[in-house]
């Protein structure tokens, strides 16, 4: 059937089965899937702290709302060739690589974060979604841009403004190892949050291999 819609897998699954998400953060909540908000007013996703404008899961008490895709985010991600584990956390004292704050909130809703097991690497789900959208608007996710190393560096710098993206000749091996670690961290978190919808996004992180 021909149509003009592209859906996250989780959104389509919700439409078909009306199954609630399984999130350890909301064990006592009874979620229902809705094609549109059954209540008046703006609804904010409890996981990413961003506005919900389409399909949503809503607690029967009406006090918790989730994007269908956010509801199905991986709770843990394992860094390759390492014992490091990235966890989706509700509370963290770590500082986000993007906004340089510990908390990312919208009104009374505080979003969740992906945090490395040592607490050194952290990214708010909301910050990553907004940063990737900003990179797309700037054209960094176009084929021509990702073929250009300078565009890749600008895109990575936009994702983590205070990190050193471009390796220098005088940079120590530990510093280079640290840079590759946080770039790998970003790649895994981007894949988890966006579902890696574009193979172009993967090309952005190839700079870590150079």
Question: Could you explain the architecture of this structure?
Answer:
This protein has 210 residues and is of the alpha+beta class. The chain has 2 domains: 9-71, no CATH class; 74-209, no CATH class. The chain is 33% helix and 14% strand. The strands form 3 sheets. The chain has a 4-stranded antiparallel sheet with strand order 4-5-8-9. The protein has a 3-stranded antiparallel sheet with strand order 1-2-3. Strands 6-7 form a two-stranded antiparallel ribbon. The longest helix is centred in the C-terminal third of the chain and has 22 residues, at 173-194.
Q: Quick gist of this model?
A:
By secondary structure, the chain is of the alpha+beta class. It has 2 domains: 9-71, no CATH class; 74-209, no CATH class.
Largest sheet: 4 strands, antiparallel
How many β-strand stretches? Answer: 9
**Structural class determined from secondary elements:** alpha+beta
Count of discrete alpha- or pi-helical segments spanning 4 or more residues: 7
Give the proportion of residues in helices: 25-40%
Task: Give the overall pLDDT as a whole number.
Answer: 76
Distance from first to last alpha carbon: 44 Å
Question: pLDDT below 50 for ≥5 consecutive residues: which ranges?
Answer: 14-21
Summarize the helix and strand pattern as letters.
HEEEHEEEEEEHHHHH
Oligomer: single chain
Q: How many domains?
A: 2
Strand content: 5-15%
The largest sheet has its strands arranged as 4-5-8-9
* Radius of gyration (Å): 18 Å
Overall, the morphology is globular
Transmembrane segments: 185-208
Domain DC1: 33-71
InterPro entries: C1-like_sf (IPR046349), DC1 (IPR004146)
Organism: Gossypium trilobum
């Amino acid at each position: 059937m021909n149509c003009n819609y592209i859906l996250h897998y989780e959104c389509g699954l919700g439409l078909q089965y009306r199954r609630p998400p399984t999130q350890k953060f909301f064990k006592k909540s009874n979620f229902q899937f809705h094609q549109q908000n059954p209540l008046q007013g703006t609804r904010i996703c409890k996981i990413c702290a961003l506005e919900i404008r389409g399909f949503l899961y809503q607690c029967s008490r009406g006090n918790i709302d989730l994007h269908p895709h956010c509801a199905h985010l991986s709770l843990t991600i394992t860094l390759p060739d390492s014992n490091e584990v990235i966890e989706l956390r509700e509370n963290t004292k770590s500082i986000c690589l993007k906004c340089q704050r510990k908390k990312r909130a919208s009104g009374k809703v505080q979003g969740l974060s992906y945090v490395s097991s040592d607490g050194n690497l952290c990214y708010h789900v909301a910050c990553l979604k907004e940063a990737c959208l900003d990179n797309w608007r700037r054209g960094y996710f176009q084929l021509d841009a990702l073929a250009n190393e300078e565009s890749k560096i600008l895109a990575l710098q936009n994702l983590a403004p205070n990190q050193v993206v471009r390796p220098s000749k005088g940079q120590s091996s530990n510093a280079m190892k640290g840079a590759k670690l946080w770039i790998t961290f970003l790649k895994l978190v981007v894949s988890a949050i966006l579902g890696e919808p574009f193979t172009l996004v993967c090309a952005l992180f190839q700079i870590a291999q150079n």
